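Give me the fold.
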Amino acid sequence: MPELNTTLSDNGAQIEIFAKFFHGLSNPTRFRIVEALLDREMNVSQLVDAIGASQSQVSNQLACLKWCGYVTSRQEGKYVVYRISDERVRMILQLAKEIVADNAEHIRCCTRM
């Protein structure tokens, strides 16, 4: 896999990858899954209970999150247990929460996104 330049430039393909990375957290179910996994590892049933989504929704969104590198999994007996794959995901969410806290009303009222 080619290495990405970490500075955004006029490279359209590179900008598309960065946008897709953030799009990974734009789905409310995916976001709630990632947030729930910040506290501890969970299997699908535990995530269903924690976020109140259906088993099929959770499984589908976990597949997306795993494919894109947000979460990883391991077998534990008859269960597959999921966890955050990289501590930097925790940092990104914490920074996002701080920014949202400072700009919540503007974000809530924004009609351009």
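The first helix runs from residue 12 to 23.
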